[in-house]
Design goal:
The chain has about 650 residues and is mostly helical. Among the domains are: about 180 residues, Hypothetical protein af1432 (Orthogonal Bundle), CATH 1.10.3210.10; about 60 residues; about 190 residues, Hypothetical protein af1432 (Orthogonal Bundle), CATH 1.10.3210. It is about 55% helix and about 5% strand. It has 32 helices and 7 strands. The strands form 3 sheets. The protein has a 3-stranded antiparallel β-sheet with strand order 3-7-4. It has a two-stranded antiparallel ribbon with strand order 1-2. The protein has a two-stranded antiparallel ribbon with strand order 5-6. α17 packs across α20. The longest helix has 20 residues. The two termini are about 50 Å apart.
């Protein structure tokens, strides 16, 4: 990694160790699992007499090997229930036979669901589900490799990370390498990962037993013999509570210290990896960071404080990794226990960041993003003067941006509706008025994301990619965009080919990395006659856009009659969900007071959606009118309603009221 410009004084090892703590939460492991694994692998490397260069590889590979394990948490939860439980159980299984992996998947399939639903899910799983499950390890390696590349780690570290997912018996991923073909550094990291889990749970004897049980299957027999002979020494001191400092001190060589620019780049990479936990939050952390940073300048904070607030915004949701996707992606009402787990994520963010002296100042701000002036926020219920300006700005920015993004229990709101909700929170005494004003002003004058489309994607492919990242199937994408499922499938295939992604999880990471999801809502950009990011295409979850498309079809190109060649049209939200409408203030029934955060409040109770058409009814494209419309389009004489039907990008800029 190049280090131009002013030095931040932050060591790369500190940031990786911090990210490892958050990764532990997503793995269903106690914090410091990866740190302890790193120490075990380094001690084995020393006993084997590995060179200083090899020890550097072991050190960094140990800290990044598993950071991609939540990239497909959406699919994990969809098929197997609690994704953290699935990954916890994974380390307790040795997939030494051909039947082991299928049996493991079937035991976890539909976990936590009724028997009838599990049976239906099993039938579906035999199709796309099994392929998605089999590609998970490859996804995890690809994501970790991508992060290592962004951090500037060398090719030897990246190769070690890739081969950490291999097995001695050749049943691993991604290449099915076996025996001595696998790098020795990778074999050390693999053994250290599993033995740490057993040692922490049941002591040295259990760690030695599992190593011997998997000798010749998952682990290198020679490495197992070395570990078993010196286990007491290798595992000594792991429980003394000084693991963090021991790992930082163990960094081989002089270590890597980051420039200010590189510090920001690493935090942005961490933000992207945090957000791909759920398809509903891709791009959220960057958007909050940029909005809060601009609001800080408007509010008169000095440049250093504004930069610190932006950095806190990048990592404010790191604790989300500790909450399973069965909660984040739930479309129904959250139970009281689920809501309490949601309330814990700012605390988890704070504890993760506070371990690093360099990141502790960011932790003090990030933990406040769900606090409220009246004390109704969480996790601590900080109120009034105890809530600093930086916390007030971050809370307002997070609230505003979350309203403009879709969530599983509600659609996205346009900029005007989000601003109205912010003002309502100010009137209710939950958000600070000055902070809210600064955020709203920043939202109206921020520079849009670049309009260039990466990887040669077309505007339609960007639109499809956004829906794909949200977890929609090809058929659901077709319904949203009023195209055929076959056309949607072709778009998805082109997206995979152009981006190099093999599935939804990796496509989502591509979208997050290239800023294709999140940021200022299109409606606000159009209101100010400013360029729309990702070319002219609208946010795919914007209900107003879908409404305009349906209206255009109804006006001129379709008739509502049954018959051949049906063209399905997605549901239009009920009036209570239309852009610009403020939802009623809901009350947490378990506490008897308003819940602090809009999404949590909405998730605790939601209103039903209305159906546009009776069940079974379809809209059919009239062939003659379709051909006439196409002719007028070629001649440049198409009607306004036909432009509406082709997409929102053909509309003139909206005029503010």
């Amino acid at each position: 990694m190049t280090l131009p410009g002013a030095r931040s004084g932050v060591r790369l090892a500190e940031l990786l160790a911090t990210l490892s703590l958050a990764t532990d939460l997503g793995l269903g492991q106690p914090m410091e699992h990866m740190l302890r694994q790193c120490l075990i692998a380094l001690r084995l490397a020393e006993r084997l007499g590995l060179s200083a260069a090899d020890r550097v590889v072991v050190y960094y590979a140990s800290l990044v090997a598993w950071v991609g394990c939540h990239v497909d948490a959406y699919e994990q939860a969809k098929w197997f229930g609690d994704d953290t439980v699935l990954k916890t159980d994974f380390r307790h299984a040795d997939f030494a036979t051909a039947a082991a992996a299928p049996l493991f998947m079937m035991r976890h399939l539909g976990a936590g669901r009724p028997a009838a639903e599990r049976a239906r899910l099993a039938l579906t799983f035999l199709g796309n589900g099994r392929h998605a499950a089999e590609s998970m390890l490859t996804n995890h390696w690809l994501a970790a490799d991508g992060l290592a590349a962004r951090l500037g780690l060398g090719q030897r570290v990246r190769d070690c990370v890739e081969q950490t997912f291999e097995r001695w018996d050749g049943r691993g991923a991604p290449r099915g390498m076996r025996g001595e073909e696998i790098l020795l550094t990778s074999r050390l990291v693999c053994l250290a990962d599993v033995t740490e889990v057993y040692h922490r749970a049941a002591g040295t004897a259990a760690a030695v037993d599992v190593a011997r049980e998997r000798s010749g299957t998952q682990f290198d027999p020679a490495v197992v013999d070395l570990f078993a002979a010196d286990a007491a020494v290798v595992l000594d001191g792991l429980d003394d509570g000084a693991t963090w400092q021991a790992v930082i001190d163990a960094e081989p060589g002089a270590g890597i210290r980051l420039s200010e620019a590189d510090f920001d780049s690493v935090l942005e990479a961490i933000a992207d990896f945090t957000d791909v936990k759920s398809p509903y939050t891709i791009g959220h952390s960057r958007g909050v960071a940029d909005l809060a940073g601009e609001a800080a300048k408007i509010a008169g904070l000095d440049p250093e404080a504004a930069a610190r607030l932006r950095r806190a915004g990048l990592v404010h949701d790191l604790g989300r990794l500790g909450v399973p996707n069965t909660i984040w992606d739930k479309k129904g009402t959250l139970s009281h226990a689920e809501a309490e787990r949601v309330r814990m994520h700012p605390y988890l963010t704070e504890r993760t960041l506070a371990a690093s002296p360099a990141l502790a100042p960011l932790a003090a701000i990030a933990v406040l993003h769900h606090e409220r002036l009246d004390g109704s926020g969480y996790p601590r219920g900080v109120a009034g003067p105890a809530l600093p300006v930086a916390g007030r700005l971050l809370a307002a920015a997070d609230f505003y941006l979350a309203k403009t993004e879709p969530r599983p229990h509600r659609p996205a709101t346009d900029a005007a509706g989000a601003a109205a909700s912010v003002r309502a929170e100010v009137r209710a005494g939950r958000l600070d008025g000055d902070a809210a004003s600064a955020v709203l002003k920043a939202a109206g004058h921020r520079i849009a994301r670049r309009a260039a489309r990466p990887a040669g994607l077309t505007s339609r492919e960007v639109e499809v990619l956004r829906l794909l990242a949200m977890g929609l199937s090809n058929r659901e994408i077709a319904g949203r965009l009023v195209i055929s499922p076959k056309t949607a499938s072709h778009h998805v295939e082109h997206i995979y080919a152009k981006t190099g992604a093999a599935n939804r999880a990796m496509a989502s990471l591509f979208a997050a990395t290239h800023g294709l999801i999140g940021g200022l809502p299109e409606a606000e950009l159009r209101r100010q006659n400013r360029p729309v990011p990702g070319a002219e295409q609208p946010h795919p979850a914007d209900p107003a856009v879908r409404g305009r498309v349906v209206v255009g079809l109804l006006l001129d190109q379709v008739v509502a009659v049954p018959g051949a060649h049906p063209q399905p049209v997605g549901d239009v939200p009920a009036p209570g969900h239309l852009a610009g409408r403020e939802r009623a203030q809901l009350v947490d029934p378990g506490r008897g007071e308003p819940a602090a955060e809009d999404d949590l409040r909405g998730h605790l109770g939601r209103r039903p959606r209305q159906e546009v058409l009776a069940r079974g009814e379809r809209l059919k494209v009239h062939p003659v009118r379709k051909h006439r419309a196409q002719g007028r389009r070629v001649l440049g004489r198409d009607r306004p309603c036909e432009r509406l039907a082709r997409g929102f990008h053909c509309l003139p800029p909206a005029v503010s009221s």
